[in-house]
Amino acid sequence: MSAGVDAYVRSTALMGTVVSMQVIGHCATDTERVARDAAVDRAFEWCREIEACCSRFDPTSEVSRLLHHVGEAVPASPMLFGALRFALALAQETGGAFDPTIGHLMEARGDNIAYRTRAIVNTAADASHETNWRDVHVDADAKTVTLLKPLMLDLGAVAKGLAVDLAMRELRDYTNFAIDAGGDLYLGGTNAMRAPWVVGIRHPREVDALIQTLHVSNVAVCTSGDYERRLSSNAPPDEHHIIDPRSRTTASASISATVIASSAMVADALATAAFVIGGRDGIALLEQHSVDGLIISKSLERFATRGLSRYVGAVAS
Ligand code: ADP
Ligand code: MG
Asked: In the sheet that 302-304 helps form, which strands lie side by side, from edge to edge?
């Protein structure tokens, strides 16, 4: 007889990746089953809404439409406003190592194919080429966004995390559940074996190997890896999808950065920022935010926050 509990799993292609949701526990009645399925439906719906709001690959998204209103204060949805305000604050804090205004740069470097339609996006022609986070203004009282120059926002480092946070709110009453949006995770409670969730961080250079295993409950875990997403197939082999906006070249300090935090949006963005900054300074950024993490350098040197040991090989509370 198995000591495990039932697990209900659903997966869908969304936000350029595969999103999976898993709810642990047995439904005793049809009513319970219907309620659980509806909660999972709502969780997926948030991912669709975030995509419709934040994708720079969709010309009708809220982010893309801002480009038609340069210089105007545009009322923003709570999703766009929340993601952008956090991203701009992190940009300021990191002196631009993290920068949500790199849309046209990403596009010009070959990250320009909409995954769903395979259409090539071409907004770079409308956008100026030397822009940074100072060229966007958010008004916290009026909840508006103003592009001070023509630029394409790229919320690729925050939007998936925000979607995971919103999905988590729909599932948290189930206590034991997991959300995986292509490496951006939230792990609620315990797994089907009634134990803390085990998250394997992929070895950045060895196929089918893990560089670290974490035992977690009620936290988000997000990893940025240089192996995650290549640019177009004819890009040079060491080019990937994380940029150091200060040099406008591929970020090369790290090959993997993982962050554990209570919010997936925070973990997602900080993983990207820590990846760009790298090493001890990257870890210092994580410690300033009171989150834990692990950064692997190009030479496979490991840099970890002091608190990471809580999650390694032991049960985290
Ligand atoms: P993934 O999308 O593979 O989970 P990340 O969370 O690290 O990876 O996000 C990478 C995405 O973030 C890129 O595809 C791009 O959209 C955006 N990005 C890349 N470099 C930066 C940067 N320096 N600052 C902010 N966003 C970035
Ligand atoms: Mg990230």
From this structure: 7-14, 17-24, 177-181, 184-188, 219-225, 254-261, 292-297, 302-304
